[in-house]
Amino acid sequence: MNAALIAGGLVGLGVFALVRALFPSRPGLASRLAAFDARASRQEDAPRPGGTTSERFGGLRARLGTALARFYASQGWEQRTVRADLALLDRSFEAFLATKFLLPAGVLVLMPLLAAYCALLGIPVVVPVWLGLVLAGVFFFFPDMQLRQEAAVRRRDFRHVVGAFLDLVAMNLSGGRGVPEALMTASQIGDSWPLRRIREALTNARITGQTPWQALGTLGDEVNVAELRDLAAALTLVADDGAKIRQSLTARAASMRSREVSELEGKAGERSQSMLVAQLLLCAAFLIFLTYPAVTRLLTA
Prior knowledge:
The structure is a single chain. The protein is 85% helix and 0% strand. It is built from twelve helices and no strands. The protein has helices at residues 2-22, 29-40, 42-45, 53-75, 80-89, 93-120, 126-174, 179-187, 193-208, 212-223, 226-237, 242-300. The chain is flat and about 85 Å long.
């Protein structure tokens, strides 16, 4: 029964692929623009004939990622959350899509070897097939889970630096500097990666003729940090009144610090509860260990 279901599913998949090949969907404007943008960098992504194995694999991964990115663009799948997390981690969307595809593909390629090994051991072929499909699904969603965890840690660090950045900007405003000079001076004090991102955004804004708060708002949208967007909105509203800006920045920094303290206290409480549960389970296991011999004697008597 299971073999018939698997065979039917494979036949249906083949029919669907045949129909899609005979009647392809009409490419939209987004896919054409993506193809036009990727055409300029296609020569750079292509591996050289005399390159090493790693370079050839990198070129294959780049071409695969570019093709998947064009497919996503043609389907209208924006993936804003994923793009924001990748921008925060300074990674490319194409490499992420290639990794997301190659991991389950590797599992599916190794599935016949696993099936042959299980056949030698006398295990039914259905077991390795389902096991391979489950592993392929797990490996398909594994990059998303890893990206979400790493981005959460980086975003928390970014928020912490933004709170200190607000205090520095308020101090510079108290010293008599204007808003653009205060923002640039505050971003040049440290050398951490969030301050470097803020400094690069402010420098690019000066080159392109944008206002610093517009650059901060764009950066907040790019990395999905609400504090930067709120800062850009506040600076846009009160850019002409230095006193109100100082009060607003000081209040925002204080609220961010209090929120960080409350989050840390909440995490500490969760860890304390988890430790308490672990201790209770250990005590229960110890009691079962002590009472097991007496219970077995009573039952066998």
